[in-house]
Amino acid sequence: MGALAQGSVIVAKGELIDRQRLWMAYELFETTSPSVPILATLDATRRDHALNGEQMWTSVIARANMVRRKIAGIAPLRVFGHDHLPPAADLDVTKVLIDVSALGVSGYAIDDWLYKYHRISMGLSDARHILAVLSLGTTKSDLRKLVHGLQDLVKQLASDPLSCRQLRPLRGWHAVRRHGDAGACGILRSCRDDCL
User: What pTM was estimated for this model as a whole?
Assistant: First the structure.
């Protein structure tokens, strides 16, 4: 659920979590002066989820499954999916982990390239992967832009294998990006010029 920065909700259900221990841990971080605007956005989001949560997230999950299929169709990219998990595990399909190692370029360089040439901000990147995180604010247009950006990347690397290897990190962007501030609508976001 989204709220203003610094807002969060702890949901505990079932018997797996010791409620007394959870409460004691919570009290270590609880503030004595809560922000009314933050609490108001949490309450508004809670209300939206109580009334329309299933409907809202059903469409996000449908878009996530669609973008997973489209990205998986872009050779040589691989999308981490249900078949990569042990039998008893489950997958959050809104976290799209893309293995880019077959391209011979690090995920960091691809992350920078996608932002520089397509204004696409990935949630995370490492030496072999990039991660797109879909949320309620992620639009079909954002996902089309992501798929187009990845197709363009593969095409560019096929015509010029050195095009991403020599890309230098964008100045100041790593500090912002690594702390998850990619925009109000979620971590995957097609940023506009005023994003920073």
Answer: 0.71
